User: Which sequence fits this backbone?
C-alpha cells in the first residue's frame, strides 16, 4: 500500500502507453510533412486516373480525387499545410500570448487591467466567426492564415499564462528578485517562465488542436487554404461531391485530421503529472 | 444579501455590455479598416477615379474611421443594419426569415441535446470507471477532437449512403408532409446534437463528480443510502447550478457548429447567408451577421455566469 510513495521521484516521468501511441502518430505526421516532396508517388497536380473518385487500388493506394489525381500524394502534401500552418500559428499565439500574460501578471496595475479587459472581450468572439470576418476582409493567403489563426488564439494563451503567472508572482523569490533590482524581462523569463513551462507546453498542445480544427473548418468552407495548395480540410472541400458514392477521397483526409487531433489530445491527457501540473 | 447578489448580476451585465462594445469595435475595424477599398471593389478595376471618389463620398467612406464606426453603431442600435453591397437590399430584410430558420434549428437541437446530455452525463458520473462510463468518455472526447464537418460527413455516409434512409446534402424547399420535414431536419439536427452534446456531457459529468466527491455525499452513502438516492436526492440539488452553467456554455458551441452545418446541408439560415457573404465580400451583411452571432454567444456565456452567481450559496 505504501509502495507508491517509496518509488524514487524521477521515475514519475514515465509515459503511459496511450501517450506513447499518441506521440508516435504525431511524429509520423511530422516526418511525412517534412519529407513530403520526396515521398509522394505521383506529382500532386498530375491527373493519373481516367476515372474520377476512383476506389483504392494497388496503383493508387487511396484512390483518386474529383479530377483523377492521386489521393495519397495529395494527402502527403496536405500534411505540410495542415501541420505547418497550424504549428506556425500556435507558436505565434503561445509566444505572444504567453509573454503578454506573464508581463501583465508582473507589471499589474492599469496595464494588466486594460490588456485583460480588451483580450477577454476579443476572446468572446467565436473563433470561427473571427475567421470568417478576417477572411472576408483580407482574403486568405498562407501568411494571412498563419497570422489570423495566431491572433485568434492569443487571448486564450494570454489568459492561461496570466492565471499561472499571477500565482508565481506572489512567491518570495519574486519579491527578492524585484528588490535586487531585476527588470521585468528578467523576472518574466528567468523567474516565472521556468516554473510554469510544463502547463504552458500542455496548453500549447491543446491550442494546436484548436488551430488544426479551425484551419480545417475554414478550408472546408472554401475560405482557408486556396488552390493550388490544399490542406486536409481543403481536400474534403474539393472532393465533397464524392460523398454520395462514399469515395475514399472524402473520407481519408477527414481521418487524417482526426488521427492528428486525437493523438495530440491523448498525448496531453497522458503526460506525466509532473510536467502537466508543475505549478499546482 | 439580496442587494449584494443583484449588484453582482448588474456588474456582470455591465461587463457584458462593455464586452459587446469592444467586440462590435473589433468587428467593424476588422472589416472596414483592413486593406481593400470598398468603392474600388464595388466598381471594379476599370472604374474612373471620379466615379470611385463619388461613391466613396456617397457611402461616407471618406470620413474618419471613428465617425463611420459611430454612425454604424448608432444605426445598429436603431435596428438599421445597412444595405447589402451586392444586391442593394436592406440587410435586415435579407436576414429576417433566415434568422428564424437558424433559431428553429438551434431550438430543436437544444430540446434534444439537453435531456440526452443530462441523462448520459449524470449516469456516467454515477458509474464512474465502469465500462459504460469509459465508452461515453471515449465517444465524447472523440467527437470533441474532430472537426464538425467530419461528424456531418460521417452522418451522411451512415444514413444516406449505407442505410439509404435520408437524402444526402440537399435541402428541398418543397415540404409536403410531416415525414419530409423530418427528413430535411434530421441530418443537420443529428450533427449539431452530436457536437453540442459531447461538450455538455463532459461538463455535466465533471460537475456531478465534483459534487459526489464531497464529504456530505460520502456521509449519505455511509449511512446506507443507495447510489441512486445519494446522487439524485443528495448530490443533484447542489449540482444544479454548475450543470445549468455547463448547459449554457455547451450551447455556445452551437455558434461554431451551425456555420459548418448550414453550409454543408445547404440550410437557409443566417450562417449560410454569412458564408455566402464572405465569398462576395458583402461587408454590411458580414458585419451584421457577425454581431448577431456575437450577441447570441455573449448572451449564453453571460447567462451561464449569472446562473453560477445565483447557484453559489456563499454569495446568496
Assistant:
Amino acid at each position: 500500500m505504501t509502495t507508491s510513495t517509496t518509488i524514487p521521484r524521477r521515475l514519475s516521468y514515465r509515459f503511459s502507453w496511450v501517450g506513447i501511441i499518441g506521440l508516435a502518430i504525431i511524429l509520423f505526421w511530422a516526418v511525412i510533412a517534412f519529407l513530403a516532396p520526396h515521398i509522394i508517388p505521383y506529382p500532386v497536380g498530375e491527373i493519373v486516373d481516367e476515372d474520377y473518385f476512383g476506389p483504392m487500388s494497388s496503383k493508387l493506394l487511396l484512390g483518386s480525387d474529383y479530377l483523377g489525381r492521386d489521393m495519397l500524394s495529395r494527402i502527403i502534401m496536405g500534411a505540410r499545410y495542415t501541420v505547418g500552418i497550424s504549428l506556425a500559428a500556435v507558436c505565434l499565439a503561445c509566444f505572444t500570448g504567453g509573454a503578454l500574460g506573464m508581463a501583465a501578471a508582473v507589471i499589474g496595475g492599469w496595464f494588466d487591467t486594460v490588456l485583460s479587459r480588451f483580450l477577454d472581450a476579443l476572446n468572446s468572439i467565436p473563433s470561427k466567426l473571427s475567421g470568417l470576418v478576417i477572411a472576408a476582409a483580407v482574403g486568405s493567403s498562407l501568411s494571412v492564415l498563419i497570422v489570423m489563426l495566431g491572433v485568434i488564439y492569443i487571448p486564450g494563451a494570454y489568459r492561461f499564462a496570466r492565471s499561472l503567472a499571477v500565482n508565481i508572482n506572489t512567491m518570495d523569490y519574486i519579491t527578492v528578485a524585484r528588490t535586487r533590482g531585476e527588470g521585468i524581462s528578467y523576472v518574466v523569463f528567468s523567474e516565472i517562465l521556468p516554473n510554469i513551462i510544463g502547463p504552458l507546453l500542455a496548453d500549447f498542445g491543446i491550442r494546436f488542436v484548436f488551430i488544426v480544427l479551425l484551419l480545417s473548418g475554414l478550408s472546408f468552407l472554401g475560405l482557408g487554404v486556396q488552390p493550388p495548395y490544399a490542406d486536409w480540410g481543403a481536400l474534403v472541400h474539393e472532393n465533397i461531391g464524392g460523398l454520395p458514392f462514399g469515395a475514399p477521397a472524402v473520407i481519408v483526409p477527414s481521418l487524417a485530421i482526426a488521427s492528428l487531433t486525437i493523438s495530440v489530445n491523448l498525448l496531453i491527457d497522458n503526460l506525466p503529472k509532473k510536467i502537466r501540473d508543475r505549478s499546482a | 444579501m439580496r442587494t449584494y447578489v443583484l449588484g453582482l448580476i448588474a456588474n456582470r451585465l455591465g461587463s457584458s455590455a462593455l464586452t459587446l462594445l469592444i467586440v462590435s469595435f473589433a468587428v467593424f475595424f476588422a472589416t472596414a479598416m483592413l486593406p481593400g477599398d470598398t468603392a474600388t471593389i464595388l466598381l471594379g478595376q476599370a472604374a474612373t477615379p471620379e466615379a470611385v471618389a463619388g461613391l466613396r463620398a456617397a457611402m461616407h467612406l471618406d470620413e474618419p474611421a471613428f465617425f463611420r464606426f459611430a454612425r454604424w453603431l448608432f444605426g445598429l442600435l436603431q435596428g438599421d443594419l445597412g444595405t447589402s453591397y451586392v444586391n442593394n437590399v436592406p440587410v435586415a430584410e435579407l436576414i429576417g426569415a433566415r434568422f428564424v430558420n437558424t433559431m428553429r434549428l438551434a431550438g430543436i437541437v437544444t430540446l434534444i441535446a439537453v435531456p440526452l446530455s443530462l441523462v448520459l452525463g449524470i449516469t456516467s458520473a454515477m458509474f464512474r470507471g465502469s465500462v459504460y462510463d469509459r465508452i461515453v468518455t471515449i465517444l465524447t472526447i472523440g467527437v470533441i477532437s474532430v472537426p464538425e464537418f467530419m461528424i456531418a460527413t460521417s452522418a451522411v455516409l451512415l444514413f444516406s449512403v449505407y442505410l439509404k434512409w435520408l437524402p444526402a446534402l440537399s435541402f428541398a424547399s418543397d415540404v409536403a408532409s410531416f415525414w419530409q420535414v423530418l427528413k430535411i431536419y434530421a441530418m443537420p439536427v443529428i450533427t449539431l446534437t452530436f457536437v453540442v452534446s459531447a461538450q455538455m456531457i463532459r461538463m455535466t459529468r465533471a460537475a456531478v463528480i465534483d459534487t459526489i466527491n464531497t464529504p456530505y455525499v460520502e456521509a449519505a452513502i455511509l449511512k446506507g443510502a443507495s447510489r441512486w438516492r445519494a446522487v439524485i436526492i443528495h448530490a443533484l440539488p447542489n449540482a444544479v447550478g454548475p450543470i445549468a452553467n455547463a448547459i449554457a456554455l455547451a450551447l455556445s458551441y452551437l455558434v461554431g457548429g451551425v456555420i459548418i452545418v448550414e453550409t454543408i446541408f445547404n440550410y437557409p439560415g443566417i450562417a449560410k447567408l454569412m458564408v455566402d457573404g464572405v465569398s462576395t465580400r458583402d461587408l454590411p451583411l458580414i458585419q451584421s451577421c457577425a454581431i448577431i452571432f456575437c450577441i447570441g454567444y455573449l448572451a449564453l456565456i453571460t447567462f451561464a455566469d449569472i446562473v453560477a452567481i445565483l447557484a453559489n450559496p456563499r454569495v446568496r
